[in-house]
Amino acid sequence: MRGTILLALAMLPLPALALRGQAQPVSLTRAATRPAPARSSQGLIPREEIQAALGYLGVPYTSGGTSRAGLDCSGLVYRVLQDAQGVAVPRGVEALFRSGAAVMYPIHIGDLLFFDTQTQGSPVVASHVGIYAGSGRFIHAASQGSRTGVIVSWLSNPYYRDRFLGARRVVAWRQPVLDVILTDAPERVTSVSPFPSRERMTIRIFNRMTGGGPLDLTILKDGKRVLASRIAPGAFGPAAVCLVPDVGIWDVSVCRLFKGRELERVTFAVEE
Q: Which is the catalytic residue, given 108, 128, 242, 255?
């Protein structure tokens, strides 16, 4: 039997936003035939942005600044994405506003938030930017007010709420696909990288065991069963489960049909 694999889930310094709700309906489909890839598809992890941004707290505001000696709002975004991901982004609020994918709902950790802090009328102009950190808070370099420099503010603050223009997603999350590969040796795995909440993801079950036959699949969220179904992955391709998960800790358990022995359990986190 292979050794147990436990990969610790890194925790954000700020708590996750409470955008919780009921899990969306789950449907079983048959995936197209293809070679089984690696166990999971990794991508950029936006929380690395937050950890980098928090490292600049207290740096003074300096117009045009892009270093620890001083930062402006777009300079903070520019510096953080370079530090965390090596991603080159435009320098300037309006250029950032025109880049990336527009975000409606939900706003995810790492999304860029834009505000019109100057015109207060028409035309609307993006003049301030921050990085969403979860729980309704964002990190930004403020040029005025009771606190200036790099700080954490609430999006619900009337000043920012009334001037909020929208969000852009410049850094992508991991691909929303989790592969569970069954072998003759039972295994438990914790996926180290989180999945984004409220976005369609696919769980593919590959059968590499000796023999075949139907299996029992159970999906749990925070220890409570969300789905129980019978699947039969085989030589013609994996069985695939499609769902839209909300925030929480999820488990995928696959058991033999008659003996009830658990063949595989994969635990993964879903974050906002």
A: 128
